[in-house]
Design goal:
Elements: E1 14-19, E2 22-31, E3 34-35, H1 36-40, H2 46-55, H3 61-74, H4 82-92, H5 97-107, H6 115-128, H7 132-138, H8 169-181, H9 187-202, H10 208-218, H11 223-233, H12 235-248, H13 254-257
Antiparallel strand pairs: 1-2, 2-3
Helix pairs in contact: 3-8, 3-10, 4-5, 4-12, 5-12, 6-10, 6-11, 8-9
């Protein structure tokens, strides 16, 4: 008779102790050694806990402040952003919250203003560090995609806006603020000092993805983790804009209103058709 072997999920992030009367319910939950509901809850901030989840260590005060500042800057890219517009399209069409957020994630995952662009920009920091000459050499050619079956070839330098005229004020404000929160020497402070030089090499201005990549690098995240966190931090704006457009309805949404012509609209009162 063969001996049954228990299946085990391997994780260094999470550990649970079962309740005495129910082995399927947790009595205590530990995140990287910290009791979540006994030690963290009520004592740590959301950003301290978020850092602990990703890095498996308690953040310093500066690291928590840097993550919080980055989260505020990324929380709502606004209706101009493609991922937010995707969520708005879903919301105004009557789709549920999950559909709107999945639309935002799908569109916001790409290589133009999306999370994949942030990951590629973070790889630049890993390769070049704070060496200006290395950056100049790297920025003179586009990065090569290693997964052509997943990602198309990049058409611009990651972290920069190919359609920009000059670096927008919110991006400069975000960079200046976050640079104050990151200990020297840091990617953010270095980027603040050399932004103009890098923009001259590339030929177009720094984008928010470039600031985010530097901040995530300073938080000591590797590119895949930074990519995931960037996606998460932009969801609040997508959610609230989708909810707002759902309340307004498609008649006040120009992208649907101008493209639809109903001869017998069931939503209009009798006699108004």
């Amino acid at each position: 008779m063969s001996e049954h072997k228990a299946e085990v999920i391997h994780t260094e992030i999470w550990e649970e102790e079962p309740e005495a009367d129910n082995p399927f319910a947790a009595a205590r939950c530990f995140c990287s050694g910290y009791d979540v509901y006994g030690e963290i809850l009520g004592k740590a901030s959301w950003f301290e806990y978020l850092f602990l989840l990703f890095k498996r260590e308690r953040p310093t005060r500066k690291q928590a402040q840097l993550l919080e500042g980055l989260a505020i800057a990324l929380a709502n890219p606004g209706p101009r952003d493609h991922s937010v517009r995707a969520a708005m399209n879903a919301g105004v069409g009557g789709s549920g919250a999950a559909s709107a957020l999945m639309a935002a994630l799908a569109v916001g995952a790409g290589g133009y203003g999306g999370a994949h662009e942030v990951a590629l920009a973070m790889e630049g920091w890993e390769a070049c560090g704070l060496d200006l000459e290395s950056w100049r050499k790297r920025l003179k050619k586009l990065p090569e995609q290693t997964r052509a079956d997943v990602w198309p070839e990049m058409e611009h330098q990651p972290g920069f806006d190919p359609h920009g005229a000059s670096c927008p004020t919110p991006i400069r404000q975000t960079l200046a603020h976050l640079a104050q929160l990151s200990p020297d020497p840091s990617a953010l402070s270095w980027l603040l000092a050399h932004r103009s030089s890098l923009e001259q090499v590339v030929g177009y201005p720094l984008a928010m993805t470039g600031v985010a990549a530097a901040a995530l690098h300073d938080l000591k995240l590797e590119a895949r983790a930074g990519e995931a966190l960037f996606l998460m931090l932009r969801l609040p704006g997508a959610a609230v804009h989708a909810l707002e457009q759902r309340d307004y309805g498609w008649r006040r949404y120009p992208f649907f209103r101008d493209g639809l012509s109903l001869t017998d609209d069931p939503g209009l009162p009798a006699g108004d058709a």
